[in-house]
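User: Watch each token:
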Amino acid sequence: MIGTDVKISANGDVTGTLKTVTGFTKFSNAEQEQSGHYFPITLTGHGDNMTLKKNGSPQKEGIPFDSDIIFRVENTEETREVEIDGKTALTLNFRNARFE
């Protein structure tokens, strides 16, 4: 899914290689979301509810907290944000990532 060179800097910049994955049926039932570049992350925080945003827009709101998240990243211009109980816990940008 990701290369051994992947790193997240303190400011949320993601560097390294996101590998192409196909047939990832556990990610989504929608066939068009079962292939692409994915970014798994384990959060160290905790809370009750979370909101996941893509480029500032909520994609999933008020979902139960889960420390293990996988984002499907469509291009290097994306940013992803995780809010836990209404507060930003993490913001990632992929402008320095490479797609393989």
Remarks:
- The chain has a mean pLDDT of 96.
- Residues 1 and 19 are 5 Å apart (CA to CA).
